[in-house]
Each structure stands twice: as structure tokens, then as C-alpha cells.
Specification:
- Helix 6 runs parallel beside helix 7 and helix 18 packs across helix 24.
- Helix content is 40%, strand content 18%.
- Helix 16 links the parallel strand 16 and strand 17.
- The two termini are 38 Å apart.
- The chain has a 10-stranded mixed beta sheet, with helices on both faces. Strands 8-7-6-9-10-18 form a 6-stranded mixed beta sheet, with helices on both faces. It has a 5-stranded parallel beta sheet with strand order 28-27-26-29-30, with helices on both faces.
- The structure holds NADPH dihydro-nicotinamide-adenine-dinucleotide phosphate.
């Protein structure tokens, strides 16, 4: 007779299907297909309809309209018309709507879960336990922000009409991440779901009608990439929020360059999952299940690169194989399934092609011994061994249920491998040693780090990427700021002229020095450097007289400066107190040369009150020195038994391009916040009044600023700005110049997707502390890293 143990081991799962009768009935009453939701009304589905396929059965479950330019026009017009009233509502009134949405989602949880499963192929276990509860949580959380927005964000207002484009991997959840903060802040919305998964957005629109959301506040235009492009590019859209592939993120960045639209991008990832030898290996194996086999691996932050310390790697891979053998893949409506279907047959072919390429490059593909259903877009879960960092599968986002693996010996090696990717979305660190785990969390370049956990989300925890994983955050206070604006940086008048032409002919006017010739140089890596091209240009001052010459930097000088800045990365690790001290010392040394700077400012002929500008510069040093140890992160209330920290980290090297007005104050106002937050700076001084920079670097030299932390260039503004914008090692760029230049740098920045803060050619009153300094500068100088640390057993 078999023992109970034998029976337990041989017991098979019986089928446990979730009923889809209610959803089928709902679909049958919409058999003509689904149209758009514009101005509170549903349009009929006409024109060329796109089939909506259940990838698990390959059945066409509906058809969806493809939004035309006219549909997008109508949706934007409706959103614009609804904006004044919606944004003027007291926060409490908006909170009531968001609360009603949350409640209605909860009441219809089962319906939404089944519909999402049928549309996307993901398991009911996940839609029921993860997607839909998180959707409700997101609306609750943002009902709270709607209530509090006026108190918590004084001086802020909503941005306007938000164009939101979402992907197919978490259709309703991504909608919630976009719509909830937008509405809470008082914006109106035009949203496009992915054409592969349009159904829950349509059902959501029906829910909005039920709760009586005013017409035009949320508009949903169905369609494909063309429709998305029409939304992003529409002149009536004030902010674009996009989640999807890095390639499309780049297209959108270029498309809306120079438009002044606010932009947040949540893009791809190739996130490391790091297992140290002191990790609880069984827990880490369970972590892998949630990291790469969750949602069929179609997760932007999937732990898709397993980095395992050498000593435990063989044991870990064996355990992983054993665990993988127990995975169940099949009908996603069956409650006992671990994995359902990937989103489409096309996505399945894409995954298979990548896996084949991996094998051809020599990696070994270990697949789970599972029998897949005969029909449907099912993919066998697995992981590669013998893969190398340069293999395509180690670099490219597979977006399927297969991880790559690499081993490492030391912590330094783990960090190097983890950061050996153009992405920086998330990371997962497994160790029982809290010191080592936190060290890794600090050193990995990623927007979210989970310690002894993975793929955890909460509406209060900011989510978003570093590097080519995009910029902007979703969730929490930081996420709200994406949908609010103070508008101060767009208030100034457009500068009357663009930069004066560069004159490299020998100066003929009277120089500002009597005896010894003065050569203004560049300042690179803590040294005064002659320009690489061996050229200078004439600087004109009061009354148009030539007052000296400045170095004419070229691309090579920019590259040298960036290299020097990158070498100075220790600056990011010094204490905030140390940074403050350096800034105070800078003020002290500047003060000692007050008369000289005031005279030099007067000689430019461009500064009305040189004394005042100088005084403001001194104050600015003090203000940022004061902020260095006060612009803090926070601990956020998310799940129980978790400390969720948000930390403000420096970007690395920031390029700053100063305008011609306020040649000393503007330059310092751009350099100081960046340096305060631990960044290094490559600064381009005013093209017209560059001699101030030469005096300034002499002060830097005496102020204990480590070599390479601040580098100063002079020359043709837009030539240098373009090189900075295109440079892969420049992590962010602030540009003050012309309208054309703003557009140019935004286009050029699309390469490594660095965030650009351009002034659209608008004058800024640098002396006014509302415009010339503030928390916005510090926010722009830092990126939020969210670290999840569980505790307890
Ligand atoms: P896309 O980036 O193409 O799609 C995301 C969304 O953008 C969809 O709604 C899509 O419309 C829309 N879109 C496509 N082109 C444009 C455009 N030019 N302007 C505006 N909107 C546009 O991702 P894919 O669906 O093609 O997936 C390809 C790969 O991208 C995946 O295999 C995966 O690697 C990655 N990806 C990453 C995601 C993430 O969360 N980071 C999410 C999805 C994909 P439509 O789909 O209707 O054509």
C-alpha cells in the first residue's frame, strides 16, 4: 500500500478552471467590436478593425478600432475642454471620483481578472492576486493625493492634457499607473492601450460612465503605434507618459523635441538578480520564480540576468532545475497554473528567435520539462547556462520566461556585471548579510532594488529607471510631481537674439589688462588646459570693445572634460557634510575676490547691477551648501514588514550649458545644485561673456573641489551642447540657450536617453530665488532609487 508521502508526491492537480461565462456574455454584447471613448461617449467600431486574440486559445474575442488622426483630435479637444473645470475642482471632489473608481474596481475584481486573462494570456492567479488588487490600491492611494494635493504641493498646478501610451504586459495596471496620478493632480487624459490588449481599458471606460466621471476627463483612443504617435505629437497635449520599448521611447523623445511637453518614459530593462554565496538559496530560487517566470517573463523589471557567486552556482542551478520541473504551464484560466500564454504568436516567435540566437552563440538552454498545450502562444520556461556577458541574450530584453546566468567571484565583479548593460530599471540582491546586500543596493545602477525579494510594487513606492530604462517615476510623491508643474521655467520671455557669432580673428580692441597678457583657458580635470584646437575667440565688452580672448573648445575638449568628470566619481561618495563644506569654502574664496569679479562683470557691459549679481552668487553658494545634507530621501509606507527607502542619488556627470545673461550667477546656479547632489559637472560658460569662467576656475582651484568635479569650457555654445547631448557618458543635460538649441539637444539626447532640462530659449531672472534656485534644481540633479528591505521571518 502506498504511504501518504508517496501519495502526496504522485498526486496530480485536477483542473480548476475559473468561469469565464460572465466575460463571454459581456463580449457577446459587444460583438460588433469596440470603438473609442471620447468625451464620455463610446464611438462605434468602424473602419479597419484590428482583431483581438486570446493568445491562449488563438480565438478572436473582439475587434478594435484603429484611432485616426481625427479621433485623436476629437479626444484631445474633449480633454482640453474638460480641463478647466476638472482642474478647478477642489481636491476633495476629485478624491471622491478616484475613490469611487477604486471601489468599483474592487466590486468587479473577478470580472476584470478574467477579462485581463483572456485578453493577455496571463494566469488568473496573477490577475486575481496581483494585477487587479494593485489597480485598486493605485486608485485608493491617488484618491489620497487628490485630497492632499493643494496642501502637499503648494505653488504647483496640473500640467494640462496628458497623452498616455501603455503596453500590453500589464494592461489595466499600466492604465492605473498613468490615469490615477494624472487625475489626482487635476489633469485630463487621452490614453491609448496596446492594440494587443485593449479590452480592460474599454471595460474601465464603462466603469467611468457608471461612476459619473465628467465627460472628457478621461478619453481612450484605441489603435496601434500610429495612433500612439498621433497622440504624442499632438499640439494640444502638454505631457506625454509612455511605457514600452526603449526604441519607441527614443522615437517619442525625438518626435516631441522642442515642444516643451513634459515627458516621462518607462522603458525596457535587463535587470540583474544577484545571488551571493551567503544567500538563503531556497528563498533565492523562489525569487527566480517570481523574477523571470512571473507574467511569462513579460515584465520590464524581470530579473532576467541571474548573477550567482561562483561557490554556490552549481548548487543553485541544480536547485533551480528541480524547481523549474514543478512549474505548470497551460490554460491561464486554470487556477493551478503558474504560467499562461505569452501575449501573441508574434511575441512567441520573437522570443524563440532570440533563444535560438543564444544557443547559436554557444549558451546552453535549460528548459523546464513541461508539456505545452497544443494550441496557443505558450512558451517553455527556462534559463541559459554557459552564457557570456557579450551574448545577445545577455544584453537584449528577451521579454519571455527565460533568464541568462553568469557567475562572479567578488562583490566588485558582481557590481561590474550588474551594471554592464545600457538599462537600469531594477535589481534584486540576495544575501543574508545586510551589510553586503545594502552595499550592492547602493552600487547597482537601477531605479528599484529589492533585497531578498523581487518584483514587489506598491502605489506609494516610486518606480522607474536609470539610463536607457527611461526617466521619471510612477508612484508616490515623486510620481505625483510628474503630473504637476510650477511652470516657472517657462515664464520668461524668449531671448531676443541667439548667441553672438564667434570671431577667431585676432582681437583689435583694447585689452582689459595693462601689463602682462592674460590667457583665458579651459578648466579640465582640475587643470587649466589650452583648447585642443589651439584657437581662441575674441570677447567683446562694454560698448562693443574687444576685452580679451577666450579658449575655443571643440569636441575633443568636451570628451576630455567628460573623461575627467567620470574619473572624479568619488565625489558621489563623500559625505553631504563634506560637500557642504566645500561649497561654503567656495563662497569664502569668492568673497575674497569680490572687487575683481564685480569689475569683470561690469566690463561685460551686460550686467546692470554687478554688485547685486555678485552678492546673489555668494548667497547661492550658501543656499546649496545648506541643502547638501537636507535634500533627503524618505522611508515610505508600503507593505507590512518592509522598509521601503527612497534615496536621492546623483546621476553621474551632468552637462550644463549657461546662457549669456548673468554670466557669473547663471553659471553658478547651474553648477552648484548638480555638485551639491554629488554629480560631476561639465559646464559650458556664457558664449558672449566667457572671461568670468576663467576667473571662476581660479576660485575652484583654491576651494578644495576635487579635480574633475567641475570642468569649465568656453566656446560655441550649441556645438559644445550637441556634443554633450550625444555623449553616452553624460547622464543628464541642462541647457539654457535658444529655442532651436533646445530642440537640437533634445533630439541629440535620444541616444542614451539622458534627461534634458532645456529652457526653450526663455530668459530666466537668475537673481530671483523663485527662478534661479530651488528644490526643482536639486530634484533635477538627482534620481530616485527605491530600495525594498523586508524584515522578520
Ligand atoms: P512598443 O514599445 O512598440 O509598444 C508600447 C506601446 O507604444 C503600445 O501601445 C504601442 O502601440 C505604442 N507605440 C508603438 N509605436 C509607437 C510610436 N511610434 N509612438 C507612440 N506609441 C507607439 O512595444 P512592443 O509591443 O512592440 O514590444 C516590443 C518589445 O518592447 C517587447 O518585446 C519588449 O522587449 C519591450 N516592451 C517593454 C515594455 C516595458 O514595460 N518596458 C512593455 C512592452 C514591450 P501598439 O502596441 O498598439 O502598436
Amino acid at each position: 500500500m502506498p504511504s501518504i508521502k508517496d501519495i502526496m508526491q504522485t498526486m496530480e492537480y485536477g483542473p480548476a478552471p475559473e468561469s469565464n461565462a460572465e466575460v463571454k456574455a459581456w463580449l457577446s454584447t459587444r460583438s460588433a467590436g469596440i470603438g473609442h471613448f471620447i468625451d464620455g461617449k463610446f464611438t462605434s467600431a468602424d473602419g479597419d478593425l484590428i482583431d483581438v486574440v486570446n493568445p491562449a486559445t488563438e480565438d478572436v474575442i473582439s475587434r478594435v478600432a484603429k484611432g485616426s488622426a481625427a479621433d485623436v483630435d476629437a479626444a484631445v479637444a474633449a480633454a482640453r475642454a474638460a480641463f478647466p473645470k476638472w482642474s478647478a475642482l477642489p481636491g476633495h471632489e476629485r478624491a471622491k471620483y478616484l475613490y469611487a473608481i477604486a471601489r468599483h474596481i474592487q466590486k468587479r475584481e473577478r470580472f476584470f481578472s478574467v477579462l485581463e486573462t483572456m485578453d493577455n494570456g496571463k494566469t488568473i492567479r496573477e490577475t486575481r492576486d496581483i494585477d487587479i488588487p494593485l489597480v485598486a490600491r493605485h486608485f485608493y492611494h491617488h484618491a489620497g493625493w487628490a485630497e492632499l494635493v493643494a496642501d502637499e504641493f503648494p505653488q504647483h498646478k496640473p500640467v494640462g492634457v496628458c497623452g498616455q501610451i501603455i503596453p500590453w504586459n500589464f494592461p489595466l495596471l499600466m492604465l492605473a499607473w498613468k490615469v490615477a496620478p494624472a487625475l489626482a493632480a487635476g489633469n485630463t487624459v487621452v490614453l491609448k492601450p496596446a492594440d494587443l490588449t485593449p479590452m480592460t481599458a474599454h471595460a474601465f471606460a464603462e466603469l467611468l460612465v457608471e461612476i459619473g466621471l465628467p465627460a472628457g476627463v478621461v478619453n481612450i483612443v484605441q489603435g496601434d503605434g500610429e495612433t500612439g504617435a498621433a497622440i504624442a505629437g499632438h499640439p494640444g497635449v502638454d505631457k506625454v507618459a509612455f511605457t514600452g520599448s526603449t526604441d519607441v521611447g527614443r522615437i517619442i523623445r525625438r518626435q516631441i523635441a522642442g515642444s516643451g511637453k513634459k515627458l516621462s518614459l518607462e522603458l525596457g530593462g535587463k535587470s540583474p538578480f544577484i545571488v551571493l554565496e551567503d544567500a538563503d538559496l531556497d528563498a533565492a530560487v523562489e525569487g527566480v520564480v517570481d523574477a523571470i517566470w512571473f507574467n511569462q517573463g513579460e515584465v520590464c523589471c524581470a530579473g532576467s540576468r541571474l548573477l550567482v557567486q561562483e561557490g554556490v552556482a552549481p548548487r543553485f542551478f541544480e536547485k533551480l532545475k528541480a524547481r523549474m520541473a514543478t512549474l505548470r504551464v497551460g490554460d491561464p484560466l486554470d487556477k493551478t497554473m503558474d504560467m499562461g500564454a505569452v501575449v501573441s504568436m508574434k511575441q512567441l516567435s520573437r522570443i524563440k528567435a532570440l533563444l535560438k540566437a543564444g544557443e547559436q552563440e554557444g549558451a546552453t538552454l535549460n528548459l523546464a520539462p513541461v508539456a505545452l498545450p497544443e494550441k496557443g502562444a505558450f512558451c517553455t520556461p527556462g534559463f541559459f547556462t554557459n552564457s557570456h556577458p557579450a551574448n545577445s541574450v545577455s544584453q537584449v530584453e528577451i521579454f519571455g520566461p527565460v533568464a541568462t546566468t553568469l557567475t562572479f567571484r567578488t562583490l566588485d565583479e558582481a557590481v561590474a556585471l550588474a551594471n554592464d548593460t545600457r538599462y537600469g530599471l531594477a535589481a534584486s540582491v540576495w544575501s543574508e548579510n545586510v551589510n553586503r546586500a545594502i552595499e550592492l543596493a547602493a552600487r547597482v545602477k537601477a531605479g528599484v532594488v529589492w533585497i531578498n525579494a523581487t518584483n514587489m510594487f506598491d502605489a506609494a513606492a516610486p518606480f522607474g529607471g536609470y539610463r536607457e530604462s527611461g526617466y521619471g517615476r510612477e508612484g508616490g510623491r515623486t510620481g505625483m510631481l510628474e503630473y504637476l508643474t510650477t511652470g516657472w521655467d517657462k515664464q520668461g520671455k524668449v531671448r531676443a537674439t541667439s548667441a553672438a557669432p564667434i570671431d577667431v580673428a585676432p582681437a583689435t580692441g583694447k585689452a582689459d589688462h595693462a601689463a602682462i597678457d592674460v590667457t583665458a583657458k579651459l578648466y579640465i580635470g582640475g587643470k587649466q588646459a589650452r583648447p585642443d584646437g589651439g584657437q581662441s575667440y575674441t570677447v567683446f565688452g562694454k560698448g562693443g570693445a574687444a576685452i580679451g580672448e577666450a579658449g575655443l573648445a571643440n569636441r575633443k575638449d568636451v570628451r576630455n572634460a567628460v573623461e575627467a568628470a567620470n574619473k572624479a566619481n568619488a565625489w558621489g561618495g563623500v559625505t553631504a557634510h563634506n560637500r557642504a563644506q566645500v561649497l561654503y569654502f567656495l563662497a569664502e574664496n569668492l568673497e575674497q575676490r569680490r572687487d575683481e569679479f564685480v569689475a569683470a562683470l561690469a566690463a561685460t557691459g551686460a550686467v546692470a547691477k554687478p554688485e547685486d549679481e555678485f552678492e546673489a552668487a555668494i548667497r547661492r553658494c550658501f543656499w546649496y551648501a545648506a541643502q547638501a545634507d537636507k535634500f533627503d530621501g524618505s522611508v515610505t509606507a508600503t507593505k507590512s514588514q518592509h522598509v521601503t527607502m527612497t534615496v536621492n542619488e546623483p546621476y553621474g556627470t551632468i552637462g550644463v550649458v549657461a546662457p549669456d545673461e548673468a554670466p557669473l550667477l547663471a553659471l553658478l546656479s547651474l553648477i552648484l545644485p548638480a555638485v551639491t547632489m554629488g554629480n560631476r559637472v561639465v559646464a559650458v560658460a556664457s558664449q558672449a561673456h566667457p572671461l568670468i569662467a576663467a576667473r571662476l576656475y581660479q576660485v575652484f582651484e583654491t576651494s578644495d573641489i576635487p579635480a574633475g568635479v567641475v570642468n569649465l569650457l568656453t566656446g560655441e555654445r550649441d556645438v559644445l551642447a550637441k556634443t554633450l547631448a550625444e555623449h553616452d557618458d553624460v547622464a543628464a543635460l541642462w541647457y539654457c540657450g535658444s529655442e532651436d538649441g533646445s530642440r537640437m539637444v533634445e533630439v541629440a539626447s535620444a541616444g542614451n536617453l539622458k534627461p534634458v532640462w532645456s529652457d526653450l530659449g526663455r530668459l530666466r531672472d537668475w537673481r530671483d530665488t523663485r527662478f534661479g534656485q530651488g528644490q526643482e534644481y536639486l530634484r533635477r540633479a538627482s534620481q530616485v532609487k527605491t530600495i525594498w528591505l523586508p524584515y522578520g521571518e
